[in-house]
Amino acid sequence: MEMIVCIKQVPGTNKVEVDPVTGVLKRDGIDSKMNPYDLFALETALKIKEEKGGSVKVLSMGPPQSKEVIREAYMMGADEGMLLSDRKFAGADVLATSYTISQGVRKYGKYDLIICGKQTTDGDTAQVGPEMAEYLDIPHIANVTDIVEIKEKSIVIKMDMSNSMQVVEVKYPCLITVEKDIFEPRLPSYRRKLETENKEIEVIGLKDFEDKDEKKYGLNGSPTQVERIFPPSHDKKQEVWEGNSEDISNKMTDKLKELKFV
Ligand SMILES: Cc1cc2nc3c(=O)[nH]c(=O)nc-3n(C[C@H](O)[C@H](O)[C@H](O)COP(=O)(O)OP(=O)(O)OC[C@H]3O[C@@H](n4cnc5c(N)ncnc54)[C@H](O)[C@@H]3O)c2cc1C
């Protein structure tokens, strides 16, 4: 089974500044980590490989420092890693990100299964996996909570439909996005750290893609414009009432009438 796992480096803190002019997150110089949801995606692939053989490749799109998450994936057991990094990819919204990663997948060549995390802890849209599948013209299943059976030409999985569970069989090649807790992610191993510290990480950019049309990448390829980013304001007024229960219930009745709720 040839698998590709998409992993993203995200801020390790929620104190991230936004460039007031471009609306782009200022990611330089801040603490980063692997998107926690992607640990579950990687663990799923490693479990499948242990059972059925094959290989696990990881793919990340981001600045050069994203190599760190690929190194971490190597320490957990990934066989190969590729970083999609190019200034022309900067400022991508979900559409441009999905297109860029789908081009990276094409660069990898043959695969049976792509596994993504359910969502990220920064962008948080949960759309990249399904959009990539559309660009690659392959079926996808989101919110996968369990792998029921791995067959030669298909995989049977359980998906969470929020008010019901569905068991679905899907043919390869396909893409799944997995829920957290599908499997408990293993810790990076010190032995593998030593074995893989000089392991190559291929870094590719726009010039290496099949589609080199600059209009489809980064800010150029992003139809969504961030107009303003701000913390939600809390403008609710609070009143504290004192007195016995009769006084308070009378005040409550008056207030409800004043607000025209009764
Ligand atoms: C309206 C809007 C505007 C935005 N504008 C900007 C902006 O101006 N500047 C900016 O920096 N960001 C911006 N973002 C955030 C950026 O677009 C997202 O971080 C990016 O598109 C990935 O989406 P996501 O984080 O929501 O991923 P999700 O869809 O939540 O991720 C699902 C899964 O897809 C995979 N995945 C996602 N991203 C990557 C990646 N980079 N590499 C590998 N795998 C990945 C992972 O497996 C992940 O678990 C914007 C987002 C939105 C919604």
UniProtKB/TrEMBL annotation:
Pfam families for the chain: ETF
Gene3D superfamilies to which the protein is assigned, alphabetical: HUPs
Parts of the chain that traverse the membrane: none
Region ranges (Disordered): 216-244
CDD domains xref list: ETF_beta
Matching SUPFAM superfamilies: Adenine nucleotide alpha hydrolases-like (SSF52402)
Electron transfer flavoprotein alpha/beta-subunit N-terminal domain ranges (all copies): 22-213
Protein's UniProt name: Electron transfer flavoprotein small subunit
